[in-house]
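ESCALATION

Customer reports they have been waiting on this structure for their group meeting. Please prioritize. Original submission:
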Amino acid sequence: MRDPRAAETDFFIHRLAVLGLLLFACVFFAGFIGNEAIAYALTRLDSEKTIAKVTKYESVNQLKIVWYEFSDANNVRYENRVHVPYRASFHPEEGMEVEVTYFPLNPEYSDVTDLLQGRREATSTSLAIGALAVGGAIIVIFFVSARSYRQHKRKMKYY
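Update from on-call: job pushed to the front of the queue and completed.
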């Protein structure tokens, strides 16, 4: 017959392993969604706006790409590119100034403010927000489980 305390220890370890794998899967999934969707999801959490300068505009068939550069609040320069949706009425020119919304903790996640409304309707954006929310919930559950496991180990030390 197996010791019930060992079974409880195994339960804690298995739960932490499964939560770790789920967290890895969320991060992996969010990474493949696309940069624009993740940028939109992060700027929904916290955002700052600044003025950027369009450095390059490419239009090949129906694919439009805008390259821009901006400085954050600490005067660090960033360069980014975004894909312009096919039906967007946004037509920039090189040298034009546009408003950019960026995530303050990592300004590399930024997007042209005029395009954010169109990104809200995209399915990938909903998936990115969902992946970040599920990942956050898994992190909370993981740390609560780790705390419970630590308390269990402390009790087992005196047994």
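Sent to customer with the following note: Helices lie at 4-33, 35-45, 113-120, 123-157.
Escalation resolved.
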